[in-house]
């Protein structure tokens, strides 16, 4: 879902002058990735690690699918499939949280 992808990407930037109350740190192959949005950080915890890694690298570190495939030692088509599945799951998790 393109709209969700844009939303996730918009949340990756943090104000360096404003300390935030929420910070969730994920590691992907030793790469530290910080999520400052609480809803997104909490939802990401429920995504399978192999799919979550792809979302984090793609939307928070701007890795191309081919770079992710090389890093994770999987095919480009696997990256694409897992990213699509993870975005669907993330959307459902965020919508459920929104309706609580």
Report the count of strand segments.
2
- Give the CA-CA distance, first to last residue: 22 Å
Low-confidence residue ranges: none
Strand content: 5-15%
Basic shape: globular
By DSSP (H or I, 4+ residues per run), the number of helices equals 5
User: Level of helix content?
Assistant: 55-70%
What is the CA-atom radius of gyration, in angstroms?
A: 13 Å
SS class: mainly alpha
Helix and strand string, N-terminal first? Answer: HEEHHHH
Main β-sheet, spatial strand arrangement: 1-2
Q: Taking all residues together, what is the mean pLDDT? A: 88
- Could you describe the largest sheet, including whether it forms a barrel? 2 strands, antiparallel
Q: What would your notes on this structure say?
A:
With 100 residues, this protein is mainly alpha-helical. The protein has five helices and two strands; from the N terminus they run αββαααα. It has a two-stranded antiparallel sheet. Strand 1 and strand 2 form a beta hairpin. Helix 2 crosses helix 5 and helix 3 (49-60) packs across helix 5. The mean pLDDT is 88.
Keywords:
single chain; 100 residues; mainly alpha; two-stranded antiparallel sheet; globular
Strands, helices and their partners?
Layout: H1 2-10, E1 24-28, E2 31-35, H2 38-44, H3 49-60, H4 65-72, H5 76-98
Antiparallel strand pairs: 1-2
Helix pairs in contact: 2-5, 3-5, 4-5
Question: In a nutshell, what does this entry contain?
Answer:
The chain has 100 residues and is mainly alpha-helical.
